[in-house]
Amino acid sequence: MSDSRVRRGKALKQSQVLRGGAGLALAVSTIALGGCAGGSYPGDPANTLPDGEYSGQSVAETDGSYGIVNFTVAGGKVTAADFLMFDQDGTPHDENYGLGSDGTPADEAFYQRAQNAILAEQGYVSQFVEAGDQDAVETIAGASLSYRAFRSAVSDAVANASV
After folding, report:
1. Exposed, middle or buried: residue 153 (CB in 10 Å: 0-12, 13-18, 19+)?
2. Three-state SS across 42-87?
């Protein structure tokens, strides 16, 4: 059973126990917020890994896009990290993502959304380096797919380090 279904089941049980308006409000907010984070990402905090360089790749999203993270741990701290999303065909989501061959946006709205997501990805990297713990990285509105991919890629790197 998926984590989101388990959370929904727990929320419904809470609503049965907490009769009345306050209980229902708590249950509804638990259900609404439970799916926003995008799942569970097991693993120890990255800063607990031995000194070294680590890489991980996220599970592909339904559209085939995926992310790759690289980070360095030294002295119990994440000292450097980078993260990049890719389309299924390997096209990187970088400063040129969403531009046509003439260097102008083919679709201005898409280009702006894409560039905002890229800025959010940089925010995820900054949070990760600052905290050293992938669980301390908070989702940024408008970039939940990137958040899932980032967390999944770090989880992959941590899991591969433990092998």
Report:
1. buried
2. CCCCHHHCCCEEEEEECCCCCCCCEEEEEEEEECCEEEEEEEEEEC
Task: Report helix, strand or coil for 117.
Answer: helix
The pTM for the full model equals 0.73
Per the CB < 8 A criterion, the answer to whether 146 and 120 are in contact is yes
Alpha-carbon span 51 to 37, nearest angstrom: 29
Going residue by residue through the chain (163 aa), what tens digit of pLDDT does each one get? 444 333 334 333 333 333 343 333 333 333 333 333 444 555 789 999 999 999 999 999 999 999 999 999 999 999 999 999 999 999 999 999 999 999 999 899 999 999 999 999 999 999 999 999 999 999 999 899 999 999 999 999 999 997 6
SS3 92: strand
Q: Give the separation between CA 59 and CA 86, rounded to whole angstroms.
A: 12
CA nearest neighbour of 67 among 91, 86, 43: 86
